[in-house]
Amino acid sequence: MSFTQSERIPTTPTLPTGETVATYGTYLQAQKAVELLAAKEFPVRAVTIVGTDLRMVERVLRRLSYPSAALGGFLSGAWFGLFVGLILTLFSSGGGGGVMLPAVLFGGAFGLLFSVIGYSLTRGRRDFASSSQIVATSYSVLCPAEHANKARHLLAETGGVVSGWPEPPRPPVPGPVSTPESPTVPPAAAPTAPPTVPPPAPPTQPPAPPTT
User: Fold this and answer.
1) d(CA 209, CA 46)
2) Which residues does the chain have with pLDDT short of 70?
3) Where are the chain's structural domains?
4) What does the pLDDT read at residue 122?
5) What is the pLDDT of residue 7?
């Protein structure tokens, strides 16, 4: 089965297709699983890693202050000045080695100035530096159905393999059915029999008089 570049990467946001062969808790585990498939000559162009339950994680790096903001701005500006100095050196005909140091110093000075101004504008609202990442709770490895059994067999040693057999349907639980037309009515109690009255006792005869 061959894939072209246009078929492999859709031009519009499209949900991935295929069968889930394994699920892992971290991206590194899913990456190692795909590397194992590639080492065993599996057609990895048919494989997709899908992260589910995405969360944005922001990790605080350090507390910001005027000295730290100035130092960070100077270093970033100095790197930019170094890049500009290298460009000027390459395209200079008379050996532009003397412009390297001024370019670094000017770049650092402008970076320091802009960083301090930016920090002063956000003073009291964000006094810390952080790094943000999009992290998924789980990562699934998908591939076409015709290659799913082979992928599960190759990934058996890594764990996390998901069975391809669907779960059997659960039988429905019986219960009372209620509709707007015919509401549920509890069953009527069975009629009780009337109490049994014993028959009246026969009248007693007076004793006979004694005979003489």
Assistant:
1) 123
2) 1-8, 93-97, 124, 163-212
3) 14-58+134-154, 65-126
4) 77
5) 53
Note the pLDDT tens digit of each residue in 6-52.
456 777 878 888 889 999 999 999 999 999 999 988 988 889 999 98
Q: How many CB atoms lie within 10 A of CB 211?
A: 4
CATH annotation of 14-58+134-154: 3.30.70.1370
What is the Cα Rg of the chain in Å? Answer: 42
Task: Say what the pTM is.
Answer: 0.54
Token pair belonging to 112: 């320091």
d(CA 94, CA 52): 58
User: In one letter, which amino acid is 35?
Assistant: E
Beta pairing, strands 19-24 & 48-63: unpaired
Sign of CA dihedral 17, 21, 27, 33: negative
pLDDT at 101: 83
Return all residues near 31 (Cβ < 8 A) that are at least 6 apart: 49
Determine the Cα–Cα distance for residues 142 and 21; give it in Å rounded to an integer: 6
**How far is Cα 115 from Cα 108, in angstroms, rounded to an integer?**
10
